[in-house]
Amino acid sequence: MRVYLCSRMSKKVRVRFAPSPTGGLHLGGVRTVLYNYLFAKKYGGDFLVRIEDTDQSRYVKGAEEYIFDTLKWCGLEPDESVQHGGNYGPYRQSERKATYRQYAEQLIKDGHAYYAFDTPEDLEKMRQNFKTEQNTSPQYDNNIRIKMRNSLTLSADETEKLLAEGTKHVIRIKIPLNETVSFTDMIRGEVSFDTSVVDDKVLLKADGMPTYHLAVVVDDYLMKISHAFRGEEWLPSAPVHILLWKYLFGLENMPQWAHFPLILGPNGKLSKRDGAKYGFPVFAMNWTDPKTNELTEGFKEKGFLPEAFINLLALLGWNDGTEQEIFTKEELVEKFSMERVHSAGAKFDYEKAKWFNHEWIKKSGVGSLKSGVKTLLEQKGIVFTKDFLLDEVINIVKDRCTFLTDFVPQSLFFFRAPQTLDVDGVKPKWNEDKKNFFFAYIEKLEGNINWNVVSLENSFKELASEKSIKPGDLLFLFRMMLVGGKFGPPVFNIAELLGKTETIARINKAIILFG
RNA sequence: GGCCCGUUCGUCUAAGGGUUAGGACACCACCCUUUCACGGUGGUGAUACGAGUUCGAAUCUCGUACGGGCUACCA
Predict the structure, then answer these.
(1) Which of A67, A56, A57 is nearest to A23 (CA)?
(2) Which nt has its C1' nearest the CA of A133?
(3) For the whole model, what pTM was predicted?
(4) Mean pLDDT, to the nearest integer, of A463-491?
(5) Which nucleotide is nearest to A207 (CA to C1')?
(6) What is the pLDDT of residue A268?
(7) B37 C1' – A78 CA distance, angstroms?
(8) Cβ contact A308:A360 at 8 Å
(9) How far is CA A391 from CA A213, A380, A383, A491, in A?
(10) DSSP secondary structure string, A201-242?
(11) Which residue is nearest to nucleotide B38 (CA to C1')?
(12) Tens digit of pLDDT for each residue in A431-476?
């Protein structure tokens, strides 16, 4: 286990999550939020959300709202964001455009960046021309840049002229030759890169928008971020960011980094496709792609409790070293530590995810389940006149529910008599003796009986032995009458909750149907 | 191809040089339950491979293999 002390913990902890509004928030995204959130809350710091919408071509309408809806459902609301206010706005990168240009120009002035006038076609040609067996995808690096059209190869006059004419151009970082860039990752320890293999990344695009590389550094600085956490897919571009920090704001001001392991699907990095392919949700909530109108079911709609969702996500790559697996959000805040986050990727296991939800449903009280269950049942046309029955029903069936949606089949029959009875399935087990038994049982029920589980069961069994019928055969029939299927809580508990009138009515109705 | 990160039961993981390598999910068996479940008990099952360091290696080092990520004017 690695322990890297947070050397700048004296500084107020401020972390950020920076989603790009290009689609639904998937497991990996929510876990990144979660870890950021837990870390911030553990140290009494701020959790900030800003929107990376600098790629307008991929911007998806509604995605930004969707992201905040997800955070809300998960209970991971930021302290600062577009929607929550704060003193470091604007929180959308598209609204900060002017700021980035200023820093990019600064870099050029200091000799750490340059203008590049190459067109996309030029770049394509370059990739073709310099492609070799050893180097299948040539980079715009210190070897190539001297062969391209940029302010390093052009004379100052030419450059001036091109700029004055408004020629389309980008600003690229000038990666130094033969330097080692290293930094300490809170999860992985020291990670280092040789600059000779890092390319001259575009910092400012031709449309004036920054790329992620420039924006993340500038925003983290201006928003006073103390700890920068993101997914492992960003590790290869870390040297670019370290260099930018060095050139622009000083390494002593740089946040502490941590790169989270990837959440993997059955085949590598979890993708949206995996959900459809393997039959489990990948997004926190339902997401409808506005372009294709394709709906991807979310964990919420599948019937996951938000408490279970963040619990299972937290444990995908982290544990507290004990055998505890069920954690409330408060416990996670208290026990979370970046040093215990794994460095290896974790494969998502839907079976285990279901187990977490099941545990949470069992653990939850009626109070926290009620409104969700009520909504689901109301969608099935149930009208509630007396809530106390619902309370009792939730208590009695929750142990058999894995998903919140399981409450529907498990409790619908309490509120509505079974619509169809499996008459053909019952017929072989039905005869005059049994019919007489149930007529007699109705008589007993209508008599002076205490309406509780014990009396109902005792009188049922007494009657059965009087009539010399095996209770097992009758119990099955009784269940079919009340429930309409081979499932549900003990049948006398059901009868007790159903009440006298309804129980007798269902028996009568079934007798007629069975003939 | 290059660079980076990684590798303990099928999956999530514990074990910080000395453990019969522990737990959870899943699976199997039994018990409980006149339904379906829950629950209980038990079982199958792992240190990728090869060297080195050491009295002693899952643990430290190196190599190999395998997996993943990145290699865009995407994030």
Answers:
(1) A67
(2) B1
(3) 0.94
(4) 93
(5) B73
(6) 81
(7) 40
(8) yes
(9) 53, 18, 15, 18
(10) -EEE-TTSPBPHHHHHHHHHHHTT-SEEEEEGGGGGGHHHHH
(11) A399
(12) 999 999 999 999 999 998 899 999 999 999 999 999 999 998 899 9
pLDDT at A353 over 60: yes
User: CA of A490 vs C1' of B32, distance in Å?
Assistant: 14
User: Does ipTM top 0.90?
Assistant: yes
Average pLDDT along chain A: 93
Within 8 A by CB and 6+ apart from A383, the residues are: none
Q: Which residues of A are catalytic?
A: 272
Specify the pLDDT at position A121. Answer: 94
Give the distance, in angstroms, between residue A147 CA and nucleotide B12 C1'. 51
Spatial CB neighbours of A367, under 8 Å, sequence gap ≥ 6: none
Which strand B bases fall within 7 angstroms of a protein CB? 1-8, 10-16, 22-26, 33-38, 67-75
Q: Are strands A170-173 and A180-185 parallel, antiparallel or unpaired?
A: unpaired
The DSSP secondary-structure symbol of A282 reads: -
How far in angstroms lies nucleotide B29's C1' from the CA of residue A393? 33
A494, A412 Cβ separation under 8 angstroms: no
Contact, A260 vs A234, CB < 8 A? no
